[in-house]
Hints:
disordered N terminus
Amino acid sequence: MSQTGSPDPPGVPHGVWPGTTAGYPPDEWQLLVRLPGRVMVAASSAGPDNPVRTVTAGLAGLDGIAAGRSFDSELVRSVVAAIYAESDDGRSAPVRAGAADGDLAELLLSCRAVVETLARHADPADSAAYRQWVQSVAARVCRAAGSDGRPRPFGDPVDPEQRRVLDQLGEALGLRPTG
């Protein structure tokens, strides 16, 4: 059902509002939809290699993505709906684990491309909400577990490698001043 209570248009996944996706070329929309998952993988790959930590971080990332459903931004809610629609119909692209520095550099380029896309197509409030949501996914992942895999106590700093990734993501998303 749409926000007005009428059925979703044919071919549009439930909860994805055509008014939101219509302003984006398909390749740019896919970039918006895929970026949160890529950020989740990069953030969970930063830090010590521990299988328990990786699972805990991954679950925190999924929780962060799902949290976008309650954002006050139609864009963020539509992206979350599209993520779930892709995973439901098996169309999602495979995500590689283990983000090497080359993968991180590619991800940061994608973040900058998203900022440019949002500047062209989104209103400033939706742009800010999307960028903050993506950063919050990474932050949840990095703060989820310590190097031993156990939940990180509230207020404990993240590992230096994770801090570096969070800082670089924030800068690439236009959320931190450069320089």
